[in-house]
């Protein structure tokens, strides 16, 4: 376990965190691939209490939890990638098969559509970990749906 995610000896000083994914079909190779989309405290039901993949601090944290959980194949699909659409490089999901970037905007639209049809708590669980509560609070404190200098929120998905 990494120093960041090592559990404390006191149960009151820890938090169980869940990493969730979204089944996707790669735009390039048309193969099924899993995208890492959120992390949340165990038991959190509202999407406002979750940290989402657009927040790169949260995506980095989810990647670490996946590595700690032995899910290296998924963790390795998260890396800095260049986007012509965004005119820059940012941390993003990639296809498990062809390594093509699975962009934030298309994933955001898929999650929005999912949320209209099903509960977000039905998204697949990719990892569960116990982390120091202070680490989790740091992730929450750093969250902000900003990418490459422009704000992004759920209203933008229309």
Q: Which whole number gives the mean pLDDT?
A: 85
Main β-sheet description: 4 strands, antiparallel
**Helix share of residues?**
25-40%
Shape: globular
Q: Structural class per helix/strand content?
A: alpha+beta
Number of strands: 9
SS element count, helices: 4
Domains, number: 1
Strand content: 25-35%
Q: Ranges with pLDDT <50 over ≥5 residues?
A: 146-158
What order do the helices and strands follow? EEEHHEEEHEHEE
Q: What is the spatial order of strands in the main beta sheet?
A: 3-2-1-7
Question: What's the gyration radius in Å?
Answer: 15 Å
Amino-to-carboxy terminus distance: 40 Å
Structure in a nutshell:
The protein has one domain. 26% of the residues lie in helices and 32% in strands. The protein is built from four helices and nine strands.
Defining key terms:
single chain, 158 residues, alpha+beta, four-stranded antiparallel beta sheet, three-stranded antiparallel beta sheet, 4 helices, 32% strand, disordered C terminus
Describe the structure.
Strand 4 (79-83) and strand 5 (88-94) form a beta hairpin. The protein has helices at residues 56-68, 72-75, 104-117, 133-142; strands at residues 14-25, 32-41, 50-52, 79-83, 88-94, 101-102, 125-132, 146-147, 150-151. It starts with 13 loop residues before the first strand and ends in a 7-residue tail after the last strand. The strands form 3 sheets. The chain has a 4-stranded antiparallel β-sheet. Strands 4-5-6 form a 3-stranded antiparallel β-sheet. Strands 8-9 form a two-stranded antiparallel ribbon. It has one domain. It has 4 helices and 9 strands; from the N terminus they run βββααβββαβαββ. It is α+β, with helices and mostly antiparallel strands and 158 residues long. The chain is globular and about 45 Å long. The model is unreliable at 146-158 (pLDDT under 50).
């Amino acid at each position: 376990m990494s120093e960041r995610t090592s559990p404390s000896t006191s149960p009151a000083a820890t938090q169980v965190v869940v990493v969730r994914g979204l089944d996707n079909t790669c735009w390039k190779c048309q193969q099924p691939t899993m995208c890492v989309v959120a992390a949340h405290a165990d038991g959190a039901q509202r999407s406002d209490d979750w940290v989402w993949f657009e927040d790169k601090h949260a995506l980095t944290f989810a990647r670490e939890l996946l590595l700690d959980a032995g899910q290296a194949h998924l963790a390795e699909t998260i890396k800095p990638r260049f986007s012509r659409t965004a005119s820059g490089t940012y941390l993003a999901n990639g296809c498990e098969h062809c390594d093509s970037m699975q962009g934030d905007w298309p994933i955001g639209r898929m999650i929005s559509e999912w949320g209209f049809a099903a509960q977000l708590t039905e998204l697949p669980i990719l990892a569960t970990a116990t982390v120091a509560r202070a680490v989790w609070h740091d992730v929450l404190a750093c969250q902000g749906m900003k990418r490459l200098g422009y704000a992004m929120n759920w209203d933008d998905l229309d």
